[in-house]
Amino acid sequence: MPASEKEDQAVRATNNGGPAFPVSGYVDPNTGGYEGASFGMSLHDWYAGQALIGLLSGPTGSQAAEGARNNPGHAAAWAMEFADAILAERECRQEARP
Q: How much is the pTM?
């Protein structure tokens, strides 16, 4: 695996946007453990899924849609790149807030 891919994976592992649809739980007073929480998929994975839906739902004959249908590996990579870009833009906007 090229170094840039390893770096990309490391960034995704640390900045995944947090949980997409968290369900809160509670701290069990007897054990101190967190009970009943479900963090589900990461926001990164949800964004990637939404991007993939967009890529695949293009009209028949469109270059992006046909490319995605004919090469699922490329479609998955595109979707992950879109998710990375969304999270990066989201982070920039959050940092710019006073």
A: 0.64
